[in-house]
Amino acid sequence: MLDSLVDNLRPSSPLISKRHCAILTRGIQVFLRDFASTNGTFVNEQKIEDERELENADRLAVGPLLFEVRLEINTPVNKPTPMPPTKMRGSADDDAAAVLLSLQEPQGDQTIPVGDTLMGIVPPPPEAQSEKEKTDQKKMDRTASGDTSIAAKAILEKYLRRPRT
Q1: What is the 3-state secondary structure (H, E, C) of 35-57?
Q2: Containing domain of residue 149, as a range?
């Protein structure tokens, strides 16, 4: 704990004297001392004539400056904080083996599903299709069966028919 003047603050204001007031500590108590300043020092809107003990949340006015007092008491530590207990760990291989052993065996039929990722497109009934759509459908059917040369040709034709800008 400090048993002296807390700090020096020298604001430049014509309303604050060069030696206006001091904040002092004695043990765990804090005091404000006014040095007979011209414009006075106020605690909670009351003018201080000599010295007064400050309490937490007191409002201190020194000229145009306003302060709120915050007092905190630190609890002294008599012994160091103990280290948290650590779990005994084996080697990295032991840790990996423990993880693998903790995994459960698959139960029942765990086969991988078969199939493909192609999305089947259901064509509309033949009477609803125009001749161009029927031709395009035949091309798509060939493409779905694995013949990609027709699909590549269709893409190139479409690209070449686009207007150039």
Answers
A1: CCCCCCEEECCEEECCEEEECCC
A2: 126-161
